[in-house]
Amino acid sequence: MFVTVEKHMHSISTSKTSIIMLIPSFFIKVCAALSGELEEIMRIEVRYFTKTGHTKKLAEGIAKELGVVAKSIPEPVDGNVDVLFLGEGLYSFDIDPEMKAFIKTLNSSTIKEVVVFSSGSFGNAYAPMKRELSAQGLKVSSQEFHCKGTLGFMHKNRPNDKDVNNAAVFAKTIAGKLGA
């Protein structure tokens, strides 16, 4: 049995027949794993913290592009993860205490790499996030995504659809480089 996976169509073939149908990707992965043809499945998670909804928009765009579900930070990261996309805005020139507490729950032996994304009107969250993540022993990607966020009359309607699309393209590029 061999398995080929395209974006929305999956083909399963045996020596006697070939069936093309829409099958959920988790089923394809199970079939491939059972047949011994799958070397490794990259596990990607997306977590975010937001007060305004801006970072949630980015997280959902990233997650949709990668075929996963974006979850807010109270949701723990369980099991082994190859790439954790972690996002938050910048609040008073730092990351929120809730994010700092969440980072302390992350296990460097089960998360291979963290990729930071953020939105904000005055700077981005990369430096404070990297500081906290590194202190926890986590590897932090040098590549990060940031876009403007609305604050009062500044940067109205940001992040917008273009920003969300740019975040999705960024995530797809990162995942592609890492073998997803």
Structure description:
This protein has a five-stranded parallel sheet with strand order 5-4-6-7-8, with helices on both faces. A three-stranded antiparallel sheet has the order 1-2-3, with helices on one face. Helices cover 32% and strands 23% of the residues. It has helices at 25-34, 54-66, 97-103, 126-135, 161-177, and strands at 2-5, 10-13, 18-21, 44-49, 70-72, 81-88, 111-119, 145-147. The relative contact order is 0.15. Mean pLDDT is 79; it is low at 1-28 and 35-39. α2 crosses α5. The chain has five helices and eight strands, in the order βββαβαββαβαβα. It is globular, with a radius of gyration of 18 Å. The protein is α/β, with parallel strands linked by helices. α3 (97-103) links the parallel β6 (81-88) and β7 (111-119). The longest helix is centred in the C-terminal third of the chain and has 17 residues, at 161-177. It has two domains: 2-34, no CATH class; 44-177, Flavodoxin domain (Rossmann fold).
